[in-house]
Write a structure and sequence with these properties.
single chain, 5-stranded mixed β-sheet, 1 helix, 9 strands, elongated
Length: 167
């Protein structure tokens, strides 16, 4: 019996895990969060005051690769604002792992902020470590400003993380 796991070798059975693949990408690229230089790079646009559309792209989050294929989009719902109030919401890429089944997922999610008459705070999000077995980790992609009932601005939060690998 071998004392190492030969990940890319034939083992006579299925043996390559998500953890193997994630560890590889974290070692090659880094164990942080990266928007890769492909596709539309998750560009966001305001469709209505209740809908933000995120375009395709590729990302790595702590070695886990996820994507929205080029040409596809994800529409997210923004809750209504209130006249005379301001709010900041976050759009995050949320990693989750089901404790019982071990199934991992990645979804774009809106975290609703608290309303305020002036200077609304950015909502809190979960920072976890996939490597340490945490069941959730949020990668903030956009801050959405809502004034009265209008979405007034979408600010990217990942401008410094675009990674381009030269060949």
């Amino acid at each position: 019996m071998a004392n190492m796991h030969l990940v890319t070798g034939y083992a006579g059975k299925t043996h390559v895990t998500a953890a193997d693949h994630g560890a590889f990408w974290a070692a090659v690229v880094g164990d942080g969060e990266y928007i890769l230089d492909m596709g539309e790079k998750f560009a966001a646009s305001i469709i209505t005051n209740n809908q933000i559309r995120v375009s395709g792209g590729e990302m790595l989050i702590q070695g886990r690769h996820c994507r929205i294929p080029t040409g596809e989009t994800v529409d997210l719902t923004i809750e209504n604002g209130t006249a005379g109030m301001q709010r900041k919401d976050l759009i995050v890429a949320r990693y989750t792992k089901d404790e019982g089944t071990g199934v991992e997922e990645m979804n774009l999610t809106v975290i609703r902020g608290e309303e305020s008459e002036t200077n609304p705070a950015t909502p809190a999000y979960i920072t976890g470590s996939i490597f340490d077995g945490d069941k959730q980790h949020d990668f903030p992609l956009y801050e959405v400003d809502i004034t009265d009932v209008d979405v007034t601005n979408i600010t990217p939060l990942f401008s410094k993380t675009v990674l381009s690998v030269s060949h």
